[in-house]
Amino acid sequence: MSVASRIIVFVVALGLVSFPALAGSVSIVEKFPDTQGQNDFWAQEYSAASGFADLAHWYTQGWYDSPLYPYPHMHVSGSNILMHPSDDKYVVISYQAPHTGTYEFNLTFSDGTGGAGGGCTTRALVFRNSDATLPLMEGNVALNTPAYLVGSVHLDAGQFLRIALDSGDNMNSDATLLSGTIGMPEPGSMAAMGFGLAGLLVQALRRKR
Ligand SMILES: [Ca+2]
Asked: Is the domain defined by 24-185 classed in CATH 2.60.120?
């Protein structure tokens, strides 16, 4: 086997091994954190008055703000995350971008009450960092009225994307289900390494001729 052929085999093998694991999409239900910060996800509450705070109490696979008055809270429920805000605080899943790039969000919010109390009345929104008043995507959720929030968001490494639920005008039967995926960009360093290897390959082929 020629040197050039060996390099081609090496580059193809490297691509097969590394790139599928780095790009692609992740399920936010599968990535729901057992500990704060796990998988770059945090279970939080938010209000304009008090900012963000981690939900502090973990019971049977769920996060609650208080053991005495358990709102806001969120937990995995079947193939969804069940989220419940309070009167004055959003319940928020915060995702910290592991690297700079464009992330593709495909989120579905739906009623989680089973129709009790006429179904939930909530507002789902996605915003960057602390920009709660400037949502990138938003929609209202009610019985038989899911909200689909879909879009591309550029995030610098370390920036937060907030997936939030607001109780709306009143907190009454506001259990809301969330499922969806985040499409991950390829890390810039890996893309650069790919270009570098391609450059080496071209050089090697030229030398052979
Ligand atoms: Ca409501």
From this structure: yes
pLDDT tens figures, 22-31: 568 999 999 9
Give first-to-last CA distance, the chain, whole Å: 16
Q: How far is the CA of 17 from the centre of ligand 1 (A)?
A: 47
Backbone phi, then psi, for 133, in 5-degree steps? -85, -5
C-alpha dist (Å) from residue 53 to 12, 88, 103, 206: 46, 13, 24, 58
- Nearest C-alpha neighbor of 164 from the set 61, 95, 76: 95
Please give the Cα distance from 141 to 87 (Å, whole number). 16
Q: Give me the residues near ligand 1 (ion), CB cutoff below 5 Å.
A: 121, 167-168, 170, 174
Domain spans in the chain, listed from the N-terminal domain onward: 1-23+187-209, 24-185
pTM across the whole model? 0.80
The CA distance from 196 to 35, in Å, is 38
Q: How does 12-26 read in b/e, with b if 16+ C-beta sit within 10 Å?
A: eeeeeeeeeeeeeeb
State the pLDDT at residue 21: 42
Q: How far is the CA of 141 from the centre of ligand 1 (A)?
A: 9
In angstroms, the CA 127 to CA 50 distance is 17
